[in-house]
Design a protein that fits this description.
The chain has one domain: Uridine Diphospho-n-acetylenolpyruvylglucosamine Reductase, domain 3 (2-Layer Sandwich). About 45% of the residues are buried. With about 300 residues, the protein is an alpha+beta fold. A hairpin with a 4-residue loop joins strand 10 and strand 11. It contains eleven helices and twelve strands. It has a five-stranded antiparallel beta sheet with strand order 4-5-8-6-7, with no helix packed on it. A four-stranded antiparallel beta sheet has the order 9-10-11-12, with helices on both faces.
Length: about 300
């Protein structure tokens, strides 16, 4: 009897989609592997087949149209942080990329992978024996959320650093699926459900990110974590102000999806801060306490407003 394949290297997006469509069991796309492989080793991902898309050159390009900078999903974070087109137009993306993990990880981790980085919780992202000893939570088919004690909602936190910065720049995401290719606002792919945080189908592949040019964005990015190269974010904020005075505040690490607050640089900034804080859904599932993380939100936002010379 022929053994089922557990690893296949795709040669194109179309090939990868075909393999996904033909898969009779669970599968996972593999690019940099810095998140997928850790989850597999911890027993948090039981996909039987890995479809390696890392060799698809079409997803590694950075180009510009008349209206957008287009960054391929397989551009690694180190390359993104050093790219002249990124530095010249969106230095906040360089800062966000350089805030991710360590230099070694950034050489491998991809932009698309970071956008789909799994939500994290101190009760879930542990070894299999640890989770069994502590009791299984909602995210691994247990009866309740160990962080909150509730039986309905998983509060695992959204931790993508690049998504926070890109959403502040009003980026779009180009997606290929078995039904075709679409480009939609990046924030629309996140569900707010800690167990299933992405609204993309399991066969979907991120092709590229489209960032609008000519908005003259000024941006400030801040990130809170105890150990810079080891810990995922406890709080990330990105604020972008465009040439028309429109302001967008985006936060990560405080909800199961990005928290977005839109306004103008001329309105009451304290009101914008209050809106941002009230939209969070935090529990004690982080190395920092919920109270401390929540208290740091107005601190980060105030500092960002001052750097943007709004106050």
């Amino acid at each position: 009897m022929t053994q089922p394949k557990t690893y296949i290297k795709a040669t194109s997006v179309e090939h990868a989609l075909s393999l996904a469509g033909e898969s009779s069991g669970s599968f996972r796309y593999l690019a940099g592997g810095t998140d997928v492989m850790v989850n597999k080793f911890q027993g948090n991902d039981d996909a039987g087949l890995l479809i390696d898309i890392s060799g698809i050159d079409a997803l590694r390009q950075v180009s510009a149209t008349e209206t957008h900078l287009v960054i391929g999903a397989l551009v690694c974070l180190e390359e993104l942080a050093k790219h002249s087109a990124v530095a010249g137009n969106f230095p906040v993306l360089m800062e966000a990329a350089n805030s991710v993990a360590s230099p070694t990880i950034r050489k491998t981790a991809t932009l698309g992978g970071n956008l789909l980085c799994g939500n994290r919780c101190s009760f879930y992202n542990q070894s299999a024996w640890w989770r069994e000893a502590a009791g299984f939570c909602l995210k691994c088919s247990g009866p309740l959320c160990l962080a909150s004690g509730g039986k309905k909602h998983c509060f695992s936190k959204f931790v993508s650093d690049m998504a926070v910065a890109l959403i502040s720049l009003r980026a779009g995401i180009e997606i290929s699926d078995l039904r075709g290719v679409i480009t939609i606002p990046l924030e629309s792919i996140y569900s707010g459900d800690g167990i299933n945080p992405s609204l993309l189908s399991n066969t979907a592949i991120i092709r590229a990110i489209h960032i609008p040019l000519h908005h003259d964005f000024r941006s400030v990015y801040k990130k809170l974590r105890k150990r810079e190269t080891l810990d995922f974010t406890s709080l990330t904020t990105a604020i972008s102000l465009d040439k028309t005075g429109m302001i967008r505040i985006v936060m990560g690490g405080v909800h199961a999806k990005p928290v977005i607050t839109d306004g103008t640089g001329t309105e009451d900034l304290n009101s914008l801060v209050s809106q941002a804080v009230s939209a969070t859904r935090m529990v004690d599932n982080d190395t920092y306490s919920r109270a401390y993380r929540k208290a740091m939100i107005p601190v980060f936002l105030d500092r960002s407003f001052r750097e943007l010379q709004l106050i």
